[in-house]
Each structure stands twice: as structure tokens, then as C-alpha cells.
Amino acid sequence: MYRKIMVATDGSEHSVKAVDHAIKLCKSTGAELLAVSVVNMDAFSCMEESDRDVYCKVQNALEKRANDILNDVEKKANKENVLVKKIIQMGDPAEVVVELAKREGADLIVIGTRGLLGVKRVVLGSHAEKIVRWSSVPVLVVR
Predict the structure, then answer these.
(1) Sheet containing 139-142: which strands, arranged edge to edge?
(2) What are 65-85's pLDDT values in tens digits?
(3) Domains of the chain, first to last
(4) Fewest beta carbons less than 10 Å away: which of 69, 80, 88, 100?
């Protein structure tokens, strides 16, 4: 049924639950796991012009954090004998996830209800809501 399952993670509690669920699905279906973490620099765009050094340090720190998160996902997946491909990309999280799902041929996207921002919305976090609306690939939202 599933050949490639994509999970988007930022290390938040909700995305960790999504990762765990995606790994279980991969194990039961024999699918490959595409683990994605998106580095979003939008909040720091005002620094880009004024203080390039600080901007680069922030970007490097966020990329390192994304790499650490995906290494943790890889360890969990390996314990369950699930093949994992790690992808770190810059950009808007919702746009990147939807585009990567198409490009990588994902059969399913697994996401958490809310990310690190912790802003509670009535139903879903803003990125999760956008992914559900924009994706042509089925989306499983884990809470």
C-alpha cells in the first residue's frame, strides 16, 4: 500500500508523536521513511541585511538542530529496521513539505497537530493546516 511515507518534524512534542506513528506505519507496510526538517528563517529576515554574521550563526544553529532531530529519527527508525532518508531544506515549512512530497513520490505525509511555536489554534497549527489544504498526497495528522 505505502512505499514512501514522509514525516515532517521540528522536534516538538507533537512532531515526535508523528515520527513514532510514521515509523510504526513503515514497519508494518515495509515502506521507506522520508524524514524532513525545514529550516525557516523568515523570523530572522530583518537581520539578513543589518547583521549578516549573526544571521549566518542563527542559520547554522538551526541547521545543526534540524540535523540533530533527523539523526534522532534515524536512530529510532534503525531500531525498527526501517529504511530512512533524511532531508533538511530551507523555506516555508508547509510549502517545502508539500513540494518535497510530490518530488520524492511520497504516498503519505505524517505531521503533528502543532509545532514548536506552541500557538494553539482551534483545530490545527498553521503549517499543518496549510499542508492538509495544499497537498495532493494524503495527510495523516497525529495528535
Answers:
(1) 84-90, 32-39, 4-8, 108-112, 139-142
(2) 999 999 999 999 999 999 999
(3) 4-40+68-142 (3.40.50.620)
(4) 80
